[in-house]
Amino acid sequence: MTSVLYRLGQLCVRRRGIVVALWLVIVVALAVVARIAGPNVNDNLTLPGTDSQRATDLLTARFPSQANGTNPVVMRAPAGGKLTDDKYASAIDSTVSALRRDADVREATSPLSSAGKDYLSKDERIGYIALNLRASPTGLGTDDAERIVAEADPVRDAGLTVGVGGYLGQKVSKPETHSSEAVGLTMAVIVLLFTFGSFVAMGLPIATAVIGLVSGLSIITLISQVAEVPTVAPTLATMIGLGVGIDYALFIVTRHQAQRRGGMATDESVARATATSGGAVLFAGTTVIVALLSLAVVDIPLVTTLGYTAALVVAVAVVAAVTLLPALLGILGPRIDALPLPFKREARDDHPHGWERWARFVAGKPLPSALVALVVLVALALPALDLYLGQQDNGALPTSTEARRAYDGMTAGFGVGANGPLLVAVDMSAQPAKADQSQLDDIDKQESDQKKQAQQKADAQEQQIAASLEAQGVPPAEAQSQARAQVQPQLDAQTRQIEQKASDQRQKADQPATDPRLQDLRDDLQKASGVTSVTQPLVNDSGSAAVMTATPKTAPSDQATEQLIRRLRDDTIPTATSGKGMSADVGGTTAGYVDLADEISGRLVLTIGVVVALSFVLLLLAFRSIVIPLTAGVMNLVSIGAAFGVVTAVFEKGWGASLVGLDGEVPIVSFVPLMMFAILFGLSMDYEVFLMTHIKEAWERTHDNTQAVIEGVANTGRVITSAALIMVSVFFAFIINGDPTVKQFGVGMGVAVAVDATLVRCLLVPAVMTLLGRANWWFPAWLDRVVPNFSIEGEEWFRARDEAAAREEAARRPRDEEPGVAPRGFPDDTVPT
What we know:
By secondary structure, this protein is α+β, with helices and mostly antiparallel strands. Helices cover 64% and strands 6% of the residues.
């Protein structure tokens, strides 16, 4: 691998103009095509084999118009106003008409219509237009969503507060990441300036990382056109891509600068830096990629997609670091030190380095150092014992988003549970029973009785009016005629109402929705603790499937809602459907995220095991040691546990939530800890590889374990600290993002990298390695014969190459030019000086 990277570095330097031009053409082409295609991300959950997925599949196959639920356009009148006021009612009618004309809208139901009377609050101040869209969450594009949302402008112009919910609102409520990216890049610029001391050198890692990131995000955008990509995927990819892109370039530029200060020619230095530090970058990047791709064992499409999209940007960052960066270094040459900082100080080698003093201190007191690090790490990790995998709702989004305004409006008008309705999908294996004759007879009898009562009341009223007219001197026959003329129209209108009502009852009794099985199920759902209301069932044309909506009393993110879903699935529904030739499943977004948490919890241990095992194998190959991979795995788990503890404390317990821009505690999204583990385990290996490579080099040279540890920490401390500061700055910058899920990633990964680069790499690792002594390098002889010899930075290859070159040079040198050999014609003891 070293020879390949060395030749690659030489090629990139020699053809630097072509390499840079090729990169620019590729990145511009990708960006333009991605811009034209546009992002097509969504939050659609696919969870094969789960209850919520069965509900979705049933409705998609048999009742597609109800498969995706409704998207509420929530409207709130100002204080003292009502939606039924003329000025608001006309605006609502205009909006409904505009929505119905939209080709992507299947149905728009007004809260002012008889069909939508349940969509109007009791005080008539809040209501919503129920939108049933033709497009699923996957098929709805961002541009189409924005067009549909804009069609509600008439009610906005009328003075109503409007918010759009459902997957339509989520599609247009993605907080921007530009401010986070700007803050992260600014902090990275500051760190790099102090690291390199010049503006030109600082710009190299930034340029490489940005070009690689734009390429990776463009590819993700193109992937979203043919596959389902979660909404958070581009943001997560941006966080990781910026961090690793800058860090990988930092490692290579640092090696190049050190070699140039040692007198090495620029072109040779670039090639060697690509082969040595580039080898470490390639190995570290491979470890991150393997960790992210290992998420596929969870077999959850959302998690798998998040894994491979993040792995993609890491792969692009690695390629940019070993191809684009060498070409840029070759173009700059000695100008890399141009535009130095005015207060730049040259490094002095005649005094012990600060990191060396620190390493000697830790090596001199290894046990207390290890105990201090462990105590702090355990204290940080303790809150993770209360970690609960839940789901967030739109109530945690910024108030400026459509989804948050819809959430607040629904909560105020219909209760917090209206934001997370549960779809109960019913599979009816037999045709629903028609109304029997006794039901129809009852309706007929009720109609007859009501007509008789109306007639008797009309007769009495007629006699009363006729008597009054006769008392005024009107002849009896004429008085009777006038009285009948007054009473008969009212009697006719009342009779028509009775007949229409009876007709509606007959039609309703003969519809599948009145199947006693469905009504029994609805009654049982309505009686369940924690349910506010259950709609009348809707049945498809064939009578093979039905759906009803149950509204919880609690918010979608509330643990009580999860418990309600479990009770409905485990007790209420099985009891109501047992032996009745039908089955029912609870679906919808809220139920889907409950299933997601269950799926992740059940496979978390497997995922951790796979990631740790693969990382162990990679480190074993790299360092030919059993102990080093084992201790590295344990220490990585400890640092990740500390990150989990901080995330639990801040978000689930609400400790310092205001510092990250939240009003209080919010649940931890179920896939966040799993993704954090894979990402952080991979990223922590970056610093592990960089540190252990230098320790191993010193060990092979000195065979003094303590001295190797001291030299390794001294030689890498500054670079690891700079890289960690950049990574932490990038991750923490995303805390200002409005999406709570992104905030959780930012806090968790920022804390983990900070802990890993300080407590773990600079304190715990050197302390433990000092305590273990020569045991660090134990490697069974039989395994040594089986495992191929693998070098990360290839120092052995360069050493062997340099020795071979020296021998060839000595062989070519004439004998009389060799030191200590007398020229021809002189005695051996009279060599001229």
